[in-house]
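Why show two proteins at once? Because comparison is the fastest way to build intuition. When a single record is shown, students tend to memorize it. When two are placed side by side, the eye starts asking what differs. So, the first record is below.
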Amino acid sequence: MTLKGQNIFLRALEPEDLEFIYLIENDESIWEVSHTQTPYSKFLIRQYLENAHQDIYEAKQLRLAICKNDTTQAIGLIDLFDFDPQHSRAGIGILIQNSSDRNKGIGTEALDLLIKYSFSNLQLHQLYANISTDNEPSLQLFTKFGFQKIGIKKQWNKINNQYKDEILFQLINEK
């Protein structure tokens, strides 16, 4: 599966993504956004990649690599998680690995592609995102696409022995 944009494309995960995913999952500086709490072994990630062929209805999630059009090397990940076909909804999250690739429109284009895919191909009625109140880039990104702030989960995440609030955003497909 490939979703192509003007500057980037989203593709299914491949066995060659092992090292990239290993680096992301074990980068403690981004654990707050990815809700990771412990390191992952290459063995576990290899097992995950071996099962990445499962479709979203079976796995209840869809994780895609974000790549620039001139390469197949992943620079980020975008996910649909907690896929619920009965209620036609899923959570959505995005991560661009290197700060040098951020603030260049990559996240905007990737999110646009996955929102369109979710509403047209998967026939979802709504998407939601959970974003820390101090993650200004993500707050701006999701707001740009019309995600509405539904509520604040007070002291929801414990980061470095400090509790942080998290905002629940929701985008309803009105079509």
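Second record. Ask yourself what differs from the first in the token line.
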Amino acid sequence: MWSDGGMAERGVPVTVRVWARLQDEQRAEVIDALFAALLETVSPGSRVLGSEPVVGVHREPRAVLAHLDVLPEDAERVVAAILDLDGVLPAGSQIEINGATAPFGRLQGLGLYLNGTQLGEDAYAHGDLQATADALAEAAGDAGALWSHWMGPAETAFYFYGPDAGELCERLAVIVPDLPLLQRSRFAVLPTHD
């Protein structure tokens, strides 16, 4: 659950649902920092109250809910500025204010799920997860970026976002045969809603 540190809301509550699969650290670095900088520019005095993850089975991240407290006189300007983030946040994201919602976001998400139970012992013994992540990020190039990861009971996932999930998949698929930990892996276009 998110917490505002005990400070009461002073203005208009705004909730932004971002369809990005992020761990707590990346959530703070990407989402909280993004909205804090936006509010500092567009509405000094408005603030980020916090954010919370939306999780699925085995606590796999699904989305982020960011909670903002916006000065009433700046609400329209803040909403417009958030909607202008269309090209830097994932499709399916939405902003909610005063009971109304508006969708935004254009980035597409791609998950690469590594098999954590069915590879040979050699792959797990000699495979380097960080080196694998670095190689994937390099292979993505300008087609997208690695935003986060998740380690589940049977799979580890890397989450990429870019303008075109198909192009991202093509770029990453090229290096799959070269990396031991990617044997028996699978790609999945990340959904933009429940």
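One difference worth noting in the second protein: Strands lie at 12-18, 47-55, 61-70, 93-97, 100-104, 108-115, 145-151, 155-162, 186-189.
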